[in-house]
Amino acid sequence: MERLQKVIADAGVASRRKAEELILNGQVRVNGEVIKTLGVKVSGNDIVEVQGVMIDREKVKKYYLLNKPRGVISSVHDDKNRPTVVDYIDTDVRIYPVGRLDYDTTGLILLTNDGELANLLTHPRNKIPKTYIAKIEGLLNKDDIERLRRGIMIDGRRVVIEDFKIRDKDFDKKTSLIEITIIEGRNHIVKRIFESLKHPVIRLSRIKIAFLEIGKLKSGEYRELTIKEVKKLYSLK
To answer: Which among 56, 102, 168, 170 is annotated as catalytic?
Structure first.
């Protein structure tokens, strides 16, 4: 017997958190009965339907690493018909992004139909590090650097910055290129860090999640993860 939301996530229909939302919204049936409470367990013989579609519990798991271009939505669908990260992956498998990058942020994003792994990588307790390159307005002074070392307060909570380094300074244009590693998952968190320092972000790209890197992938290119990489991701739990 497994929890209903885990079964839905493992079938690649949605992440576990999204599966919980679907259940609470009455969009899930088990053996024809609408389920609206979390914690329900099902067996391999139970028929599970999500939004009227019976799920396939024997799907092959797929894992992709995409170098997301600028101007692309980190979603499966977009109501404004803008391109999404899913559009870049050539597959018949129903996949979805793990976490998100802003519309104007580029770089590494994972897509999968493995809800368990998606939950592992996005849950705060697992403290998965993510590394970004930010081009910012201005040059960091000693006070800015000290605040980054101590951690920045955002909405009353401290953002712990695992590491950062100044990659480049342009004294003529008064801009800086900063590499920063955090374990936070709050929306726009990197932009908000530098906004709090009065150094707005001009351009932002994610270059690393845990041990996974963009490598030689050009914008819009992707590759499948290896079995070894998937196992290593699971070991981060």
So the answer is: 102
